[in-house]
Design a protein that fits this description.
InterPro entries: AB_hydrolase_4_sf. The protein is an all-alpha fold. It has one domain (24-94). It has helices spanning 2-9, 27-33, 39-56, 70-74, 79-94. α3 (39-56) packs across α5. It is globular, with a radius of gyration of 16 Å.
Length: 96
């Protein structure tokens, strides 16, 4: 999101500098690799963290209609589960 913002805003950007590391250039390949070997442990740990943050702010999602799968995000075992439940749908719905 940061890199896209910087690219689109260029001279109008109010930031004087930014750093973005480890950006996947091919999201399909990056997603596939995320589910191999040691990355499985990282995937589950990151999903646990996302789920914990999500649950702290659960009241914000009460009554939220649309394509979101709130239970899937709240019970995500993997980052893909969380993404399918909330993040991906947010960007599809909001047009981002």
């Amino acid at each position: 999101i940061l890199v896209r913002y910087l690219g689109e805003e260029t001279d109008k950007c109010s930031l004087s500098g930014a750093v973005s590391m480890c950006n996947p250039f091919n999201l399909v390949i990056a997603d596939e690799d995320f589910h191999k070997g040691f990355n499985n442990i990282y995937d589950r740990a990151l999903a646990n963290s996302l789920r914990a943050i999500f649950k702290k702010h659960a009241l914000l999602f009460e009554g939220l209609d649309g394509e979101y799968d709130i239970p899937k995000a709240a019970n995500a075992k993997t980052v893909r589960d969380f993404d399918e439940g909330l993040t991906r749908e947010f960007h599809l719905v909001s047009g981002q």
